[in-house]
């Protein structure tokens, strides 16, 4: 029987490469062998990294050269009361982070939203994109290619959808830059985040484009998708799920729970999130929406690098006339967040890992929904309400000048 020590010795002697160990032993033994190699080479004790609770084989689709697991503290906030197109009711939202005070802040915001009767949320657009880039001889061939694509959508749809039993091609938007033609394919990927699905399907469609037009494929991703990087096209057109959440907070509740006024919060939002972000040249106009999105992504098994697109969030805050006959009643507060590109799924990728499975089960959103896509829509809506709570709480703390004292009180 091959042991971890045997494998580590063979790596040290140059007989095996570190990525070949699963070919000679089970996944846990291979991981242990890598731990020994790293410990011997660096002198670092990997006792904590090596202490993981799931079979290494279950992580095979998600990691290479495994040596263990990174443990990030996970907490829960809620209940988040959501009136959504897919989400309906009260949800406890798991969040994994190392940032102290984050969950306390989000929980404060959710408690205010709950007392106000809950937040409304809707997925307004859905489409995972992949945008290959083609080479042509010049503008005439570019126009010929664009014309063919416009006239043959059904041909491209048939080729793309032949690769998947779930994905649906929604549209193909062409862009021309000199002798480069970009085709931005958009897919309904149901309950999957769908990046791999979109890539494979687009690859098949690209073969048809090359066969029928003068265009030659240069790269399956031409960055007009645009994946895992700040991009105005995602802020405008959306990618994954575009989701908006809003709530009206009664003025007396703003004063009692947030210790400020609707006018003060609205002004802080305008001067900080809107004017300040514009002056900075930011794509996102929010206080810290990525904080909540990142923590939810880690907890539920999303692609953590796609947090950058979720940071495109726009936060709006405004005063509303109070629903009261009292002429001295304080103004109510209207608050909303609009996340143009929230890329989430409840099947595939990291959602299959044991810890993330449990987190999705806390939400009641594990696996495929009925109808297809409803679980991922619901997850997007709950995360949006969590982000709204975070914005509400932070802006309340800023406008009441309690931010520093809150961190001091929590010792963070």
Task: Characterize the structure shown.
This protein has 412 residues and is α+β, with helices and mostly antiparallel strands. The protein folds into 3 domains: 50 residues, no CATH class; 223 residues, 3-hydroxy-3-methylglutaryl-coenzyme A Reductase, Chain A, domain 2, CATH 3.90.770.10; 88 residues, Alpha-Beta Plaits, CATH 3.30.70. Helices cover 42% and strands 21% of the residues. Strands 1, 2, 3, 4, 5, 6, 7, 8, 9 and 10 form a 10-stranded mixed sheet that branches. Helix 3 crosses helix 13 and helix 5 packs across helix 6. The longest helix is centred in the last third of the chain and has 26 residues. It is globular, with a radius of gyration of 25 Å. The termini are far apart.
Topology:
Blueprint (H helix, E strand, L loop, with lengths): L3 H9 L14 H16 L31 E11 L3 E9 L5 H14 L3 E12 L2 E3 L3 H13 L1 H9 L6 E10 L2 E9 L6 H18 L3 E4 L12 H6 L2 E10 L1 H8 L3 H19 L8 H12 L6 H4 L3 E7 L11 E11 L11 H10 L10 H26 L3 H8 L2
Parallel strand pairs: 1-3
Antiparallel strand pairs: 1-2, 3-6, 3-8, 4-6, 4-7, 5-6, 8-10, 9-10
Helix pairs in contact: 1-2, 3-13, 5-6, 9-13, 10-13
């Amino acid at each position: 029987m091959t042991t971890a020590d045997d494998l580590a010795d063979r790596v040290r002697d140059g007989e095996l490469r570190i990525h070949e160990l699963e070919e000679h032993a089970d996944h846990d033994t291979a991981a242990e062998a890598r731990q020994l190699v790293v410990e011997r080479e660096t002198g670092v004790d990997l006792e904590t990294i090596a202490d993981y609770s799931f079979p290494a084989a279950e992580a095979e689709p998600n990691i290479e050269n495994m040596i263990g697991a990174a443990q990030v503290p996970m907490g829960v906030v809620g209940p988040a009361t959501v009136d959504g197109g897919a989400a309906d009711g009260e949800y406890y939202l798991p969040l994994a982070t190392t940032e102290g005070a984050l969950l306390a802040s989000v929980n404060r915001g959710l408690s205010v939203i709950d007392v106000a009767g809950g937040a409304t949320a809707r997925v307004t657009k859905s489409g995972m994109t992949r945008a290959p880039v083609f080479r042509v001889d010049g503008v005439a061939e570019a126009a010929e290619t664009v014309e063919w694509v416009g006239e043959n959508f059904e041909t491209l749809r048939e080729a793309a959808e032949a690769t998947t039993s779930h994905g649906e091609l929604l549209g193909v938007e062409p862009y021309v830059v000199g002798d480069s033609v970009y085709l931005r394919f958009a897919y309904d990927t149901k309950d999957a985040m769908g990046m791999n699905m979109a890539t494979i399907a687009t690859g098949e469609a690209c073969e048809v484009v090359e066969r029928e037009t003068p265009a030659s494929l240069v790269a399956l991703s031409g960055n007009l998708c645009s994946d895992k990087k700040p991009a105005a096209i995602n802020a405008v057109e959306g990618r994954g799920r575009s989701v908006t959440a809003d709530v009206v907070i009664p003025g007396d509740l703003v004063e009692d729970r947030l210790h400020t006024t609707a006018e003060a919060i609205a002004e802080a939002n305008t001067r900080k999130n809107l004017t300040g972000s514009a002056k900075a040249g930011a794509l996102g106009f929010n206080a810290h929406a990525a904080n909540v999105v990142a923590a939810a992504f880690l907890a539920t098994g999303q692609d953590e690098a796609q947090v950058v697109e979720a940071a495109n969030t726009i936060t709006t805050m405004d005063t509303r006339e109070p629903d009261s006959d009292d002429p001295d009643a304080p103004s109510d507060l209207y608050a909303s967040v609009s996340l143009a590109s929230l890329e989430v799924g409840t099947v595939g990728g990291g959602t299959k890992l044991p810890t993330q499975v449990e987190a999705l089960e806390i939400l009641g959103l594990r696996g495929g929904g009925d109808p297809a896509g409803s679980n991922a829509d619901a997850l997007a809506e709950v995360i949006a309400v969590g982000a709204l709570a975070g914005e509400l709480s932070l802006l309340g703390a800023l406008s009441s000048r309690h931010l520093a004292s809150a961190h001091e009180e929590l010792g963070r």
